[in-house]
Amino acid sequence: KYKIDTKIVRIFNTYGPMMDKNDGRVVSNFINQAINSKDITIYGDGNQTRSFMFISDLVEGMIKAMGVNYNNPINLGNPNEITINELADIVLNFTSSISKKVYKKLPSDDPKRRKPNIQLAKKILKWQPKVNFNKGLRKTIEYYLKEIN
User: Fold this and answer.
1) What's this model's pTM, rounded to 2 decimal places?
2) Backbone angles phi, psi at 11, to 5 degrees
3) pLDDT tens across 25-55, in order?
């Protein structure tokens, strides 16, 4: 209507240093529980999958989106899936935590799988995530540990 050049990006699970420790997302929850030696709370059987994108990859994708002549939604996310159980195990390992995994009832609206299709981002933006999940998670854990001390 007003001929404004808009951009629409659909952001999928993003993590990284400076995340609010109380934001309620699974990465920050697991890290906080592990470094505080509290039980790791897993909803359901933990076999549901998620895909996690490091913050610098998101920023790069958003900058690229601003520079193209395309105004429809574009997914920005990491298509590499891991299970919630795998995430918990990695966090426990990286933090050397003595925490235990505990399982609670899965909310009825919790998706079994989250995996973004980023083909449009690859084609239009020439973008895909670069940061390895384990490397990004280590940086995030280091940040949380520094914040505690």
Assistant:
1) 0.91
2) -95, 130
3) 999 999 999 999 999 999 999 999 999 999 9
Cβ-count burial of 121 within 10 angstroms (0-12 exposed, 13-18 middle, 19+ buried)?
A: buried
* Location of structure tokens 């990859």: 57
Residue type, 101: K
| Model confidence pLDDT, tens digit, residues 93-144 | 999 999 999 999 988 888 788 899 999 999 999 999 999 999 999 999 999 9
Distance, in Å, from the CA atom of 120 to the CA atom of 83, rounded to the nearest integer, reads 25
Pick from 43, 135, 116, 32: nearest CA to 83: 43
User: Any idea what DSSP says for residue 111?
Assistant: -
Closest CA to 136 of 85, 82, 98, 99: 82
Give the E-state strand segments of 1-145 in sequence order: 9-11, 14-15, 40-43, 49-51, 53-54, 74-76, 81-83, 101-104
Pairing type for strands 101-104 and 40-43 reads: parallel
